[in-house]
Write a structure and sequence with these properties.
mainly alpha; single chain; 83% helix; MATE_MdtK; membrane; xenobiotic transmembrane transporter activity
């Protein structure tokens, strides 16, 4: 069978298509960042203890996020390839199986976290009021986890088809709900009692419920990709298809879970240096999102566009996509790096009024600013590898960096050399630089464009 030669696509057209996709993703990430920033600031103004309690609880919920982000990524890869090949029946089947299996899976996990919250928080050796506040936050926010999983799947499949405006709109509505509800409940406005950290958890869970509801409507309304499929047949699980999706997505999930487990271990270490250090670390992570959350859109775009290029058997188009995506990531990150380097004190001052926490947070932001460009370019390279189906490579990169660089150096520098929390942050910068080098080397070695060319030649036989 001979395939007709594809019409060449100009660099201008490629650039337009990329930014049509990326701008909504970046806006969505900025919205997520701002909502998290504002919510964290509201908690931060109630005290360092509340921030620390939220930070401990989030280490658990982020593992759940990582798991379902991985599953959603598996769906994104298959959706992108089916979309690129114009296989609409396969496209719908992938979405249906990803969504249904995720809902059933996350309900089990939510129940486990709710009833065993004390077990999970015990990982951090927290006690007293810190333990009490952490349990309240974790149990309450667990009710939002099923809705979080739905939103991840909805966003993943829509992005796989190149639709990034809809997830952005959902994020806008969800984050507005989160900010308003959290403000009312944390500080006891409009006749509600002052709930403090519990109010933040309720606001988050309620916002996720709203976001999931909108996402399901988008999929199942008369113009949605799953229009007419909401019936008893929708509840049928296809074991083989689910296995394929999860097999593709699990390396991405484990990549993120590695990070979360490493963070739990680091959090235990950071607690040795006091609540102030933990609060500075937590707030620093939130402030650093100014850089990596907007740039994360380029990684998602790389996954989607490389997946579509593979589906359409067009390696030249894949190369054009990557050139423009890497350039864009560097330019955007450069602006955020300038913010972290030039006004770190003002950024931290928005999150808390604790002088000691601000002084420590400034050091964190300046260290992280140095490695933002390598971190975000590595994210693009790994996104391209996922789109090509090499989802194990980013997992190997993350595992190697975290377990062989970040953790060992964190303990050595903080405890053996007496650098305390600064030693942990230095280890993080070493890890990010190492992972950039390793990601680049493996990206060149895999040569995904040759892989596309090979598949194209096979189709000609």
């Amino acid at each position: 069978m001979i395939i007709a030669e594809k019409t060449a696509v100009s660099n201008r057209d490629v650039r337009k298509k990329i930014y049509t996709m990326i701008i909504p993703i970046c806006m969505e990430n900025v919205l997520q960042m701002l909502a998290g920033f504002i919510s964290t600031a509201m908690i931060g103004w109630t005290g360092a203890l509340a921030v620390s309690a939220m930070g401990l609880s989030m280490r658990i919920t982020q593992i759940v996020w990582a798991l379902f982000k991985g599953i959603a990524t598996g769906g994104t890869v298959f959706v992108a390839q089916a979309y690129g090949a114009q296989e609409h029946k396969k496209l719908k089947h992938v979405i249906q199986q990803t969504l249904l299996s995720s809902v059933l899976f996350v309900i089990v996990i939510q129940q486990l976290i709710y009833w065993k919250a004390d077990f999970f928080i015990s990982w951090f050796n927290a006690d007293g009021e810190l333990l009490e506040k952490s349990l309240v936050y974790l149990k309450t926010v667990s009710f939002g986890l099923p809705f979080l999983a739905i939103m991840l799947v909805v966003a993943g499949v829509l992005q796989g088809m190149g639709n990034t405006k809809t997830p952005m709109k959902i994020a806008l509505m969800m984050n507005l709900v989160n900010i308003c509800a959290s403000y009312v409940l944390i500080f006891g406005k409009l006749g509600f009692p002052v709930l403090g950290i519990a109010g933040a958890a309720v606001g988050t869970a309620f916002a996720q419920f709203v976001g999931a509801g909108i996402g399901l409507y988008v999929l199942f309304n008369k113009d949605g990709v799953l229009s007419g499929l909401l019936n008893l047949s929708f509840l049928t699980l296809n074991r083989q298809k689910i296995q394929d999706i999860y097999k593709m997505g699990m390396p991405t999930a484990f990549e993120s879970i590695f990070w979360q487990i490493c963070t739990i271990i680091l959090t235990r270490l950071i607690l040795k240096f006091g609540v102030e250090s933990l609060a500075a670390h937590q707030l620093g992570l939130q402030a650093e999102a100014i850089s990596y959350m907007p740039a994360a859109g380029f990684s998602i775009a790389a996954t989607a566009f490389i997946g579509q290029a593979i589906g359409s058997k067009d390696p030249d188009l894949g190369k054009k996509y990557m050139t423009e995506i890497v350039k864009g990531s560097i330019v955007l990150t450069s602006f955020s790096v300038a913010i972290l380097l030039l006004i770190p004190g003002k950024v931290m001052g928005l999150l808390t009024n604790d002088v000691g926490v601000i002084e420590l947070g400034i050091k964190y932001l300046m260290l992280m600013a140095v490695v933002q460009i390598p971190q975000n370019v590595a994210g693009v390279l790994n996104g391209a590898l996922r789109g090509a189906g090499f989802t194990k490579v980013p997992m190997i990169v993350a595992g190697t960096g975290l377990w062989l660089v970040r953790l060992p150096f964190a303990y050595i520098l903080s405890l053996k050399f007496g650098l305390n929390i600064i030693g942990v942050w230095l280890a993080m910068t070493f890890d990010l630089a190492f992972r950039f080098v390793l990601s680049f080397a493996l990206y060149k070695r895999k040569n995904i464009y040759q892989y596309m060319t090979f598949k194209k030649e096979v189709m000609k036989l």
